[in-house]
Amino acid sequence: MKSLQQVKLSIAAVLLLSLGLLAMINWDIVKREAWLAEGEIVRLELAPVDPRSLMQGDYMTLNYQIMARIRAATDGDNLNGYVRVKRNADLVAQFVAFEANYLDASTLPENELLLQVRLRGGQVKLATNAFFFQEGQGERFEAAQYGEFRVNEQGELLLDALLDQDLQKL
Predict the structure, then answer these.
(1) Fewest CB atoms within 10 Å of the CB: 33, 119, 138, 147?
(2) Cβ atoms within 10 Å of 13's Cβ, excluding its own
């Protein structure tokens, strides 16, 4: 049987670990909120997907036009790197090159960004491949033509919104 002192120590340890976990979760939320507020905007044109997998429940499968260019520019099944893109006046990304290593942002031409990309088993992993929405809102997002992302200093993408053909948020 445990003594009262051991029980108190166990409770204190659980409380301390719980507070630490909550602090880490909240720190991640704060970082992502800042990323959404301050990150560079880049828009990726959506590519068609199998209509049977376009809308599945309360999410939509996403594919991006730029992924075919990335696949064509790389040779290998398992790579980590960056795709260099140039944004047009509407901030829509156009493929420039695949970069195996990170380039200092100050060395890039104006209006170019680096986006993190991974190839796994020949499949390009660029950004999220799904957009989740509230139940019953599927028809609203069927008109999506672009994904609007925020890019942080490391080239990571965070989906901010889906846009229609006129670049209006849905």
Answers:
(1) 33
(2) 10
Report the run of H or E that residue 9 belongs to, with start and end: helix 4-38
Task: State the first-to-last Cα distance of the chain, in angstroms, to the nearest integer.
Answer: 61
Which of helix, strand or coil describes residue 138? helix
Structure tokens at 10: 């166990």
Domain ranges within the chain, ordered by starting residue: 1-38, 41-163
Indicate the DSSP class of residue 107.
G
* Ordered alpha helix ranges (H), 39-161: 51-54, 66-73, 138-141
Whole-angstrom Cα distance, residue 132 to residue 124?
A: 20
The b-or-e profile of 17-42 (16+ CB within 10 A means b, else e) is: eeeeeeeeeeeeeeeeeebeeebeeb
For the chain, strand residue ranges (E) read: 40-45, 55-56, 59-61, 79-87, 93-99, 112-120, 123-125, 130-132, 146-151, 157-163
Q: Which residues of the chain carry a pLDDT beneath 70? A: 1, 48-57
- C-alpha 167 chain-centroid distance: 19
How many CA atoms within 13 Å lie on the side-chain side of 92? 15
SS3 at position 92: strand
